[in-house]
Amino acid sequence: MMPSSQAFKIRLAYATRGLTAASHLLHHGKHSPYRFYSAASLPSASAVVVGAGPGGITVVGNLLEHGAELQTGQRKLVWVDPHFQGGRVNSRYREVPSNTKVNLFVQFAHEVSSFKAIVKASPKPNALTALQDLPQDQGCRLSYAADMCLMLTKGLAVHPQVQSHQGEVTSATLDERTNIWTVGFDDGQHVTTSKIALCTGSSPVSKTLPAIEKLHQSLAPVDLDVALSPSILAETFDPVANTTVAVVGASHSAILVLMNLVKLASSSHPHLRIKWFTRNELRYAEYMDGWILRDNTGLKGQAADWARQNLDNETFPDSPVSKVITKVWTAGKEEEAYKAELPGCTHIVQAVGYARNSLPRLEVIGKDGGDAKPLQLEYDNLNGRFYKTGGSNVEPERQYVPGLFGAGIAFPERVTDPHGNVEYAVGFWKFMKFVKKVVPGWVKP
Q: Do 339 and 366 reside in the same domain of the chain?
């Protein structure tokens, strides 16, 4: 059974006593509120959640809502992450403006009972009160959301039904004779469980695009994470050197990169210029009657406002940014465009999307026993489950792998809008809506 909220509140109050209100100043010393366990002390788990970014936080909170079904009174929910520091949103994107309105971050923190208990027990001011003090119908710096993640992580880590294991999951082997997984950690230890949730995150695509690779052009790559952090980006270029940065893409991230570079060019780096390579016209999210067109693919917030003012075909010629940015249209002629324009560049930023981080080694022991064999899987973006490749792709006939689930940016929900457009739903609140919908099916015996 779930512990009483009062008992949980007492535990949380004890864990947070004497801590600073700034949740990003967490530490892992002997006085840390986190409790880390060796895998040897975790012989069996009600579930294993891999990853402690926004997706992992969401899954842990929702699994705790179903403590009775998970039988967490007898076995702990094991939460695994190398850092427990809010994932990339905290380590890489604190300076990035959100495309989510503040009120949805606040709603996220009140959506499950364990989160509400953490909020209630956290001394004020805290990360949530900081969000509540902002305009609710606008975006904010992701540092506010990251601090909320850290506050929730701190509280979940001392929840009596959670055991946090600082490290990495290296393998997970399903025994089809019992439908039990053996989960291996990087310290050589392991636990067994009937349920694993992979919330392993994604990273910017770093592989050079084929059309660019063919040119063998010697350009200094600028990691997208760096380009999205103005304070770090400013240290990347010599402020007195002639610098031309190629920016590839027209996504939300690409526009933020252009914004950051233009600010540098108009202040500390007057010799910086930009060539913007794009094959798509800018696309904006549009607020319809009760829904959002291009909710996951269109520009929103600061990026949308800045693009409309400076980059649209109608505004670009008269915008001050046209003195810094050269538009290079690549649709239908990518190789020719890159061949003609890249030689004048010194650096390159590829803002062309994200790819899943590497997963643990997933294997299966068949019903006849024998050696473990690799699991070949596909993800079902409608129910958060995985199914074996090679069989039927018709949903009722899919061979779903028992007890293996995914969520977060690596495994988002596939959504279809009223116009029939298919997108993948990425964002704190979107993770919450999806996980709340699918977790009841995950925990069924």
A: no
Residue 62's pLDDT is 98
Using an 8 Å Cβ cutoff, are 54 and 431 in contact? yes
Tokens at residue 442, please?
């995950």
pLDDT tens, residue by residue, 387-415? 999 766 666 678 999 999 999 999 999 99
- CATH number, domain of 42, equals 3.50.50.60
The string of pLDDT tens digits covering residues 172-213 is: 999 999 999 999 999 999 999 999 999 999 999 999 888 888
Distance CA 324, CA 349 (A): 16
Residues 18 and 152 in one domain: yes
Distance of CA 154 to the CA centre of its chain: 18
Residues in contact with 10: Cβ distance below 8 Å, sequence separation at least 6, in sequence order? none
Query: Which has the closest alpha carbon to 168: 54, 51, 53, 86?
Result: 51
CA dist 150 and 114 (Å) reads: 14
- With 0-12 / 13-18 / 19 or more C-beta atoms within 10 angstroms meaning exposed / middle / buried, residue 1 is exposed
Is residue 445 assigned to a domain?
A: no
Residue 147, by phi and psi: left (phi above 0), alpha (psi -120 to 50) or beta?
alpha
CA gap 194, 190 in Å, rounded: 14
Is the model's pLDDT at 215 over the cut of 90?
no
pLDDT in tens, 319-342: 999 999 999 999 999 999 999 999
Domain boundary among 292, 325, 353: 353
**Residues 249, 351: contact at Cβ < 8 Å?**
yes
Radius of gyration of the chain (CA): 24
Q: How far apart are CA 241 and CA 220, in angstroms?
A: 14
Q: Residue 207 burial by CB count (10 A; 0-12/13-18/19+): exposed, middle or buried?
A: exposed
Provide the residue range defining the domain that includes 287. Answer: 210-353
CB atoms within 10 A of CB 239: 14
Tell me the average pLDDT across 138-152. Answer: 98
User: In 3D, which of 56, 136, 41 has the Cα closest to residue 98?
Assistant: 136
Q: How far is CA 380 from each of CA 25, 119, 315, 419, rounded to the nearest angstrom?
A: 38, 33, 42, 22
- Do 117 and 86 fall into the same domain? yes
Q: How many domains in the chain?
A: 2
- Same-domain pairing of 124 and 155: yes
Query: Within its chain, how far is the Cα of 293 from the centroid?
Result: 22
pTM of the model: 0.90
Distance CA 424, CA 411 (A): 9
